[in-house]
Design a protein that fits this description.
The chain is an alpha/beta fold. It has a single domain, classed as Alpha-Beta Barrel (TIM Barrel). Helices cover 41% and strands 14% of the residues. The chain is built from 13 helices and twelve strands. The strands form three sheets. An eight-stranded parallel barrel has the order 1-2-3-4-7-8-9-12, surrounded by six helices. A two-stranded antiparallel ribbon has the order 5-6. α1 runs parallel beside α12 and α11 packs across α13. The chain is globular and about 60 Å long. Bound molecules: flavin mononucleotide. The site of flavin mononucleotide has 25 residues, from β8 and α9.
Length: 375
């Protein structure tokens, strides 16, 4: 088992992001009480709490149809703009799905929001996991790797439009001739995130994305992904930043935190969890390697949409802070967090956990907690 190379480890302070609950039902497919709301008033206040609590980013979600508890879904770009307008420091990451969005509209829309918010907008290019959603909105459901080929062209086009004076591009999905976007975004352009963990996702990240978002996992399994991606990125003279999902349950005692997770799972809606699992496993199986984000997810894992329990940020603030340092040691630059009761738990996390992480970072604790990539 190889230790994650030093060059793959971030040397900047870890960044923190939270999932914007712009979709109803929260981040778990469970009937447990959730003091979280998908509406704008709740979300504006949450964004203000999050930036005061030390969060750097907020990630909005894009969904076009109901399902698995997500009865209502606000659109990601307009919602992200509203959150940026209600805050001063937070960067809001808007999810974009190639297909419904094309790069021309996305680049123009995001460049304007970039000006309106002093550069506090970023994008998360997602590639689709739910064939029923595509069918409902009349979008062709391309093969898994074709979806990624399109996403890669989408990202190349976005970056080209944002940075080149006169942009020409001859892709299979998108074409431009001497296109000049004015005004260009500032600082220097919105950061480009992507979500997904398949071979195609990793290869795309190594070539074109600024950030790679992946589902929850152990530090050892994350280290394996990081080493793989960074080795390929280095061939292109790049380093990709890494963000990992986690569902955080921080309580005064570990027993209390575990009891919350047990209750979330006990109150899970089995039909909805199984239907979600079926859909996402099928989407992954369609990739050439027959895997994907959720290939090894159990029923319990699937109760949280993006395997957030696997990251195990469940326990006391001290336990969570130490596990976050392990993630940093595995090569993670950003931890993306979901919560049960967002407003109160984001505030608690900022007060109790982030300062401990900063203390451990100041002590150089990463160096004393080596992480070995899983074989
Ligand atoms: C952090 C994160 C956020 C995501 N957000 C969305 C989203 O808002 N909308 C969506 O349709 N898919 C979203 N996805 C799904 C991915 O785009 C991708 O389709 C899925 O992870 C399967 O990819 P894979 O086959 O490469 O593993 C997200 C994935 C991750 C990891």
């Amino acid at each position: 088992m190889a230790e994650t190379p030093q060059s793959n480890r971030p040397n900047e302070p870890l960044k923190f992001a939270y999932w914007v609950p712009n979709v109803s039902g929260g981040l778990v497919i469970s009937n447990i009480e959730q003091r979280t709301h998908w509406g704008i008033d709740y979300n504006r206040k949450l964004a203000q709490i999050a930036e005061a609590a030390g969060f750097d980013y907020a990630l909005s979600q894009i969904r076009f149809t109901a399902g698995y508890g997500a009865e209502n879904q606000h659109e990601s770009v307009s919602f992200s703009h509203a959150l940026a307008a209600a805050t001063e420091k937070l960067t809001v990451i808007a999810a974009l799905l190639p297909g419904p969005w094309n790069p021309t509209l996305a680049a123009k829309q995001l460049a304007t929001i970039n000006h309106l918010t002093n550069g506090r907008i970023a994008v998360n290019v997602v590639s689709g996991w739910f064939s029923g959603e595509f069918r409902a909105i009349g979008e062709p459901w391309l093969d898994h790797d074709e979806r990624y080929r399109r996403s890669e062209e989408f990202i190349r086009a976005l970056r080209g439009i944002w940075t080149e004076e006169s942009f020409t591009f001859n892709g299979d999905f998108y074409r431009y001739r001497d296109y000049s976007l004015k005004p260009k975004p500032v600082d220097p352009h919105p950061e480009i995130f992507q979500g997904g963990s398949s071979r195609a996702a990793r290869d795309m990240a190594s070539r074109v994305s600024d950030w790679y978002f992946t589902n929850g996992n152990t530090p050892e399994n994350i280290a394996r992904q990081v080493d793989d991606i960074q080795a390929k990125a280095a061939e292109h003279g790049r380093r990709v930043k890494i963000g990992v999902n986690a569902f955080a349950v921080a309580r005064d005692t570990e027993a209390e935190a575990r009891a919350v997770v047990d209750e979330i799972i006990a109150k899970a809606n089995p039909d909805a969890v199984n239907a979600f699992g079926h859909e996402v496993k099928n989407a992954g199986k369609a990739s050439p390697e027959g895997e994907g984000n959720w290939a090894k997810s159990t029923f319990e894992d699937l109760v949280q949409y993006n395997d957030g329990f696997k990251t195990n940020l469940i326990g006391t603030p001290k336990q969570i802070a130490e596990r976050i340092i392990d993630l940093k040691q595995a090569g993670v630059d950003l931890v993306l967090l979901g919560f049960l009761h967002f407003q109160e738990e984001v505030e608690f996390f900022g007060r109790e956990v982030i300062p401990l992480v900063r203390e451990l970072e100041a002590q150089g604790a990463e160096a004393t907690r080596p992480i070995h990539a899983a074989a």
